[in-house]
Amino acid sequence: MAEPRPRQRKFAPRSRQGCLICRTRRKRCDALRPECQNCTRLNLKCEWQAPRQLIAESSTSVAAQLTRTPSVTALTARPPIDSWDTLRSDENAGGENLLQYYVEAYVPSVSVATTPSSFYMHLYIPMAYESEGMLDAILALSSAQLARRIADPERAHHLRDLSSKHQAKCHTYIQDRISPSGEALRDCYQVIGMTLLLVGLEALKGTKSANWLSQLHCVRTMLNTIHLSKTCTDHGTVDSLRRHFTYHNAMASLMARVTKKDAPLPMDREIIPTFQPGIPLTIDPLMGISYQLCTLISRIQYVTAPQPAFPLLAQAAFDLIEREITEWKYESPLASTNIDLPVALDLISLAEAYRLAALIQLYRSSDKHKPLVPSCASRTMEFISRIPPGSTAESSLLYPIFLAGAELDDEAAIARCFKRLNEIQARNRYENVGMVQEVLQEVWRPALNGGNKRDWEDVLKEWGWSLITC
């Protein structure tokens, strides 16, 4: 008997005469102007495409159009931050301005590249139109970041309060849909996506507790349930959620030796990413071309236990993951027609910086390999320096710059590292960047006074912090 074909999501045909919102959502539009019924019902700003103007074009403009190619950098253009100061952010605005901010400012600020496959856009925006919980998660993120960008203290305070209200609604929504064991009772995909966005909110707010690790543990449980049940009918959605989780899970592995948390799942039950050689290159908004590498980083926590019960097996696992990280190969983004050359080169530098940072994380746990760490740190900083300030790839530099920066001894190199962290924070306004700066300052302080630098793990244990390097 033939296996049933996976159910595919059905969309209404796009209306060429409909408003831009309905066309984006792939919903039928009644084309009523100035406000269609769909936008009126959802309290959204109904927008329409401007009428086309037929004009005679010069030979120069025609030639320019023929040679023009689609680019990622063109998609990332956004208005100056000051222009968002005039947006209404009160609840009476229906959230449409904060949703606009999410699309035009928040997503570009945290993405290494803007591509059609970005789960921030192609997955979470449609979910927000159908789920109040996902909309609350997006509004909580948008208002929290906007509060850190505007100059008016009173308005910033209001936006923080608004973010907290939306975050509380998210928690209520999730609690109503998961069991005490962490399994989703309904709306599984929305719960997973919301939880991952809330982990990003914890990083933005500079949370020092380990709550985000518990959130990831819950997501891992739900994704593994989907994987083991083999009942998934929407593989595209699950793959996007798995990608988002993989990035945060890789960053969580850095805290495995620092924070007491729930025991991780055995490696044989860890989520296996769906990857097949020959599939088209997918530029991830957070990992760029480093998706497979981040799955390897997630596994480092399993081979770096201080006192393994089976030393020989632990050493064999260590050697295996070292070889896999060293030999990891990625598909070059230079072949992509949707990526400009500067963006592609930055993504390659980011991937190599991640590879070396992963080796630093691995080698720190082995006395035999610790002498290799300074060289890896120096090479990591070299690749980081190839990514210019303001590049979209800069948004995911925190993991490699933290691991490499913690190994620096030279005062000039330390100053350059601290300067780069300031530039990253100016881009995304995430308060976890400031936390990284505080930890590194404590690590460097003895070395700058003629002593030996401290170990960042000891600093975090002493302070009781759980650092989010997302």
TrEMBL record:
Pfam families referenced in this protein's UniProt entry, alphabetically: Fungal_trans_2, Zn_clus
Kindly list the GO molecular function terms attached to this UniProt entry. Answer: DNA-binding transcription factor activity, RNA polymerase II-specific; transcription cis-regulatory region binding; zinc ion binding
Q: What's the name of the protein?
A: Putative Zn(II)2Cys6 transcription factor-like protein
Natural source organism: Massariosphaeria phaeospora
**One of the GO BP terms on file:** positive regulation of transcription by RNA polymerase II
Give the PANTHER family listed for this entry.
Answer: TRANSCRIPTIONAL ACTIVATOR PROTEIN UGA3
Keyword annotations for this protein?
Nucleus
Phylogenetic lineage:
Eukaryota, Fungi, Dikarya, Ascomycota, Pezizomycotina
Which PROSITE patterns has this protein been placed in? ZN2_CY6_FUNGAL_1, ZN2_CY6_FUNGAL_2
InterPro entries assigned to the protein according to its UniProt record, in alphabetical order = Fun_TF, Zn2-C6_fun-type_DNA-bd_sf, Zn2Cys6_DnaBD
From the Swiss-Prot or TrEMBL record, state where the protein is found: Nucleus
Instruction: Provide a GO CC annotation, any one.
Output: nucleus
Reading the lineage from the top rank, the first entry is Eukaryota
- Which parts of the sequence belong to the Zn(2)-C6 fungal-type domain? 18-48
